[in-house]
Each structure stands twice: as structure tokens, then as C-alpha cells.
Design a protein that fits this description.
Radius of gyration of chain A: 23 Å
Number of helices of chain B: 5
Strand order of the largest sheet of chain B: 1-2-3
Number of helices of chain A: 12
Mean pLDDT of chain A: 95
Oligomer: heterodimer
Helix content of chain A: 25-40%
Bound molecules: pyridoxal-5'-phosphate
Shape of chain A: globular
Largest sheet of chain A: 7 strands, mixed
């Protein structure tokens, strides 16, 4: 087995390294000897060659999600795809109504886009998830109105890894004739995606969560039934007018290759990753006062989100120099902001503050996981020895019974 | 977030971690902050008959800067009179630890903690005196 390399990267949900096979394909599209042409150039072979690899990549992306290649629009990433889908559909269909439904646990790329539409006169319902992070279908049904034109619900949550029942939501949206957008930035290679079977109208993808490069993504726009969106980026009329701008051949080829590898290897890879995740979970779960955030069954195997009660997240991250992970506590301003996703699940602020997100990926090894378990246990014990809250808990004091002076 | 050297030093080797007997009349206890806000500091001082702080202990739930602020504070207050200790300003702590602006609230909390501990101690002395005169 390979040597332990520190620090250990356990933040694959933030971004992944580019797979060396992907990097190789990308490098063939840059230099004078390579395939550097503008795919929109119609008058020479440089353009034709570039166009051909772009179309090949489009097929590779489409194949992973059971779409037609004509339904794939290149963007700069999932943020842009979310903006294009939500603003584009809301604007196009605004004559039918101005109500949108989404969820409180969505990525900011969806939430902030909805906020912008509110400023433009749309009304948005932000659904509370159940305590396990999943959509409450009854609440969703109840939120639908005659003027609802768009439902936007993510597939895999980036913080807690829970997987929504997109097929059930898609069936409901189709029945009610409401456009259905799904942010699937975290899904490719982790869970099966079938846009037809799921009745999805618009779906956002990103390359850099799936071992492709940053700065490239795609939006699936259904042609059957035909879904229309208003362009947000105007110019040369690329991508059938939906998104202008010279196509970034090397980025697109990278995304295509990354999605090809995902399709081919996901079954075996997910089994290996699930084993590693369970190893991590079992190595931590016997500690006192630890809580798993989000449903464990409806979840991608890559993600583990845990709260270590009575320990503050940022100091925990600080003690975990050897591992690269993210915390549910964003202690970056005078008012400490615990994760809005965990709060939406109804988690106490304390537990939200003490949460860590581990995300495992293609290059994680058993040794990595074992080392992570060791240092996490040490750090939590050290910080609990320092924590007045831990002492109070041990003395049987109910922390909720105390009147804290909020500051 | 990158931390300054002094914060790291106090975080990795915190001084005076522990607890004093909170029922001892020569001990003052201050607990400030709130779990929901992400930091709680408990600071205890033991005061001699001459009004000098002989010992100080802390426990802190919070980020590295909060832990460092309270650790530093225990070092500073030892050997000081209550009067001197109550003059410690949050800005002194922030400066010594080179806290960035977003962490200034940690030093404010430390200042609150020493004030609270002194108040608690003084309250106890009044209570003791009343008991004796009663
Ligand atoms: C669920 C989700 N949506 C959108 C994004 C944004 O993707 P991108 O970085 O490609 O803009 C991310 C990644 O941070 C994500 O996890």
C-alpha cells in the first residue's frame, strides 16, 4: 500500500482533483500542435476538429444521464447552470405565473438566484426539509399553487449528502405541468441519473466535483417535452442561443472524459468508497455525544457529516491539521453563523457549530481513513478536556436550562 | 483562516486549564458567552487576603482565538490586584495575540470573563460580611 501523505484530503465535495486521464485529454486541446481551434470556426479544419471533440464530450455527458446530446448546454459550472435554469425558466414562463418553490437546504447558487427573482417580483416558497434532510412530499404538494411555474430541488445535498427522491418530485411536477429544475452538481458518478425516467426538465452539472476541471459545467434542457429558457448571456448565439461565448474546448473535453470515466467506473468505485465511509463511521460512532446529520440510508456513500457535541467546529478544524475537511460553522464574522443547512434540519446551533463534513473520493485510502479516525478522536478528547460545556454535561447539568447571555 | 503564532502557541499549549472550587469564598467564577454563539468562557480566580489574584484557571468552548484569549488572560491576571486585573482591556489582548478584526469578539469575551469573575468574587465578600454581621 502507498505511503500516508499528509495532509489527507477529505473534502471531495468541495472539489476533486482532476483525474490524470482527464488532464491528459485536456492537454491535447491547447498548444499549437494540439486541437486548439475555435469549435465555431466553420471555414477550416482547426474548427472542425475542435467541434468534433466538443460534440464527443457532449455525447459523453449526455450518456451518463440518459439525455440526448442536443439537450446539453455548456456553461461555466453549476452556479451558472442554476442561474440560467432558474432565471431563464422563470422569465420565459412568467406570463403563466410568478411563483417558485425551492428548499431551505439548497446551495446558495439556487437560493441567491431565487432571492434575485424575489426582487424582480417573483414569489418564492422555501420548503423546510424533514429532520433527516429529505423533502416532505405532503408539504411540497401543499405549496403548489395555480401560479407556480417552477420547482427547483437539488439531487444530492453538498453538506449532508442526502439524496432526494427526484423521480417522485418529477412525477408530481409533470402532473401539475410545472417546470422542474434539479441542481445535480454533487451527483454524477455517485448516484444514477436518468433525466427521462425522473421527468426532469432542467438539470445543472459541474465538472469539478467529478474529477474534471473547474470552470466548466452543463445544463440539461429537455427537448421532449420542450422546455424553453431565456438566455442570460447574449452574444454570438452559441449553444442554440441559450448561452453565448466561445466554447472552452479543453475544459469541455475534460468534462466529457470525466463523465465517461464516471459512467464506466461508478459501480466499483462507489462500493469501495462506501466501505471507506463505513470504516470512518465505525471508527467514530462509539464516541460519546456524536450525532450524524442527515439520513444515513438515502445518502451518497461519499459523505459523512457528524456533530461532536460540546466541541466548537473551528477549533476542531484547527486541531485537525493533518486532514482537510470542512466545518458547519463559518466563524468568519462577529456573529458566528452555523450552517444554514443543519439549522434547516432543526439542529441546535451548538450541534451545527460542532459539525464536520467528511467527503471521501477516488484517491482516498484505508490508511487515510485510519489516520483520520486517530487524529479526530485525539482532537475531540483534547477539546472536550478544555470545554466548560463538557464538564457541565458530565455533571448532569442541562445546558438548555441555563440562561446564556447571548452576545 | 490563518492563525498568528501566539494564538497557535496558546491553542496548542493552553496555560492554566482547569477548575477551582467554585464554593470556596476566595474564588470568583465568571462564565460568559453562549453555546449557540459558538463560544463560552469560564474563568476562575483565587484571591488572597491582600486582594492579589493568586491563581487563575479557565475552560473555553470556542474557536482557537477564544481559547488563546482566555489562556493569555489567566497568565496576565495572576499576581495582579483585582483593581489592576479589572483594567485589562480587550484591545490589549487583541494586540498581544494579533487577532484579526473578525476575532476581536473573542478578546471582548475575555474582558467580560475577568469582569464577571471579579464581580462574582466581590459579591461573595459582601455576602460573607453580611453573614458575619448578622
Ligand atoms: C449543490 C451545488 N450546487 C452548485 C455548486 C456550484 O458549482 P460550481 O462550483 O460549478 O459553480 C456546488 C459546488 O459548490 C454544489 O455543491
Amino acid at each position: 500500500m502507498s505511503e500516508l501523505k499528509l495532509p489527507i484530503y477529505l473534502d471531495y465535495s468541495a472539489t476533486t482533483p482532476v483525474d490524470p486521464r482527464v488532464a491528459k485529454a485536456m492537454m491535447e486541446c491547447l498548444t499549437p500542435d494540439g486541437n486548439f481551434g475555435n469549435p465555431a470556426s466553420r471555414s477550416h479544419s482547426f474548427g472542425w476538429k475542435a467541434e468534433s471533440v466538443v460534440e464527443n464530450a457532449r455525447e459523453q455527458v449526455a450518456a451518463l444521464v440518459n439525455a440526448d446530446p442536443k439537450e446539453i448546454v455548456w456553461t461555466s459550472g453549476a452556479t451558472e447552470s442554476d442561474n440560467l435554469a432558474i432565471k431563464g425558466a422563470a422569465h420565459f414562463y412568467s406570463k403563466n405565473g410568478k411563483h417558485i418553490i425551492t428548499m431551505k437546504t439548497e446551495h446558495k447558487a439556487v437560493l441567491d438566484t431565487c432571492r434575485q427573482l424575489e426582487r424582480e417580483g417573483f414569489e418564492v416558497t422555501y420548503l423546510e426539509p424533514q429532520a433527516d434532510g429529505l423533502v416532505d412530499m405532503d408539504k411540497l404538494k401543499a405549496a403548489i399553487r395555480d401560479d407556480t411555474v417552477l420547482i427547483s430541488i437539488m439531487h444530492v445535498n453538498n453538506e449532508i449528502g442526502v439524496v432526494q427522491d427526484i423521480k417522485a418530485i418529477g412525477a408530481l411536477a409533470r402532473e401539475k405541468k410545472i417546470i422542474f429544475h434539479v441542481d445535480a452538481a454533487q451527483s454524477p458518478g455517485k448516484v444514477e441519473i436518468d433525466v427521462k425516467d425522473m421527468n426532469v426538465d432542467l438539470m445543472s452539472f459541474s465538472a469539478h466535483k467529478t474529477y474534471g476541471p473547474k470552470g466548466i459545467g452543463a445544463l440539461y434542457v429537455s427537448r421532449k417535452p420542450r422546455v424553453r429558457i431565456e438566455a442570460q448571456m447574449h452574444g454570438g448565439g452559441h449553444e442554440r442561443g441559450m448561452r453565448s461565448g466561445t466554447l472552452a474546448t479543453h475544459q469541455i473535453v475534460g468534462m466529457g472524459e470525466a463523465f465517461r470515466i464516471a459512467k464506466e467506473e461508478m459501480a466499483g468505485e462507489n462500493e469501495r468508497i462506501r466501505m471507506l465511509r463505513d470504516r470512518l463511521l465505525n471508527g467514530l460512532n462509539d464516541m460519546e455525544e456524536v450525532y450524524i446529520n442527515g439520513d444515513l440510508d438515502h445518502r451518497v456513500p461519499h459523505n459523512l457529516n457528524m456533530s461532536f457535541n460540546f466541541v466548537e467546529g473551528e477549533s476542531l478544524i484547527m486541531a485537525l491539521k493533518d486532514i482537510a475537511i470542512s466545518s458547519g460553522s463559518a466563524c468568519t464574522s462577529a456573529s458566528l453563523e452555523p450552517s444554514y443547512v443543519l439549522r434547516a434540519l432543526g439542529r441546535d446551533d451548538e450541534l451545527a457549530h460542532s459539525s464536520l463534513r467528511f467527503s471521501i473520493g477516488r484517491f482516498t485510502t484505508e490508511k487515510d481513513v485510519d489516520h483520520a479516525i486517530k487524529v479526530i478522536r485525539q482532537a475531540v478528547n483534547k477539546l472536550r478536556d478544555l470545554s466548560p460545556l463538557w464538564d457541565m454535561y458530565k455533571d448532569g447539568v442541562d445546558l438548555k436550562s441555563i440562561e446564556w447571555a447571548a452576545h | 483562516m490563518a492563525y498568528g503564532e501566539k494564538v497557535l502557541d496558546h491553542y496548542e499549549n493552553p496555560r492554566n486549564v482547569g477548575a477551582l472550587d467554585k464554593d470556596d469564598t476566595s474564588v470568583g467564577t465568571g462564565m460568559v458567552g453562549a453555546p449557540a454563539c459558538g463560544d463560552v468562557m469560564k474563568l476562575q480566580i483565587q484571591v488572597g487576603d491582600n486582594g492579589v489574584i493568586e491563581d487563575a484557571k479557565f475552560k473555553t468552548y470556542g474557536c482557537g482565538s477564544a481559547i488563546a484569549s482566555s489562556s493569555l488572560l489567566t497568565e496576565w491576571v495572576k499576581g495582579k490586584t483585582l483593581d489592576e486585573a479589572s483594567q485589562i482591556k480587550n484591545s490589549d489582548i487583541a494586540e498581544e495575540l494579533a487577532l484579526p478584526p473578525v476575532k476581536i469578539h473573542c478578546s471582548v469575551l475575555a474582558e467580560d470573563a475577568i469582569r464577571a469573575a471579579i464581580n462574582d468574587y466581590q459579591g461573595r465578600q459582601v455576602a460573607v460580611a453580611e453573614k458575619q454581621s448578622a
